[in-house]
Amino acid sequence: MLDNAVEMMKSLKSLGVRLALDDFGTGYSSLGYLNRLPIDTLKIDQSSVRNLADSEENHTIVKTIVALESITPV
Predict the structure, then answer these.
(1) Residue numbers of the domain that contains 25
(2) What is the pLDDT of residue 74?
(3) How far is CA 64 from the centre of its chain?
(4) Is 74 a member of any domain?
């Protein structure tokens, strides 16, 4: 099922459509999906961002996700 979605997303991108993944970090979202999905923008779930000052765990998770942006794929 994911393979079908990825192929459809690739087709849309070939037409110039830019894709965003919204509410990342909720439900069954996984970092493993990020390298398979041809997305342009990742939107982190607000429940993780809203309490950054109050939760060291949320701060660490969001900081790590943002740091992934600077990693060049091999």
Answers:
(1) 2-68
(2) 42
(3) 12
(4) no
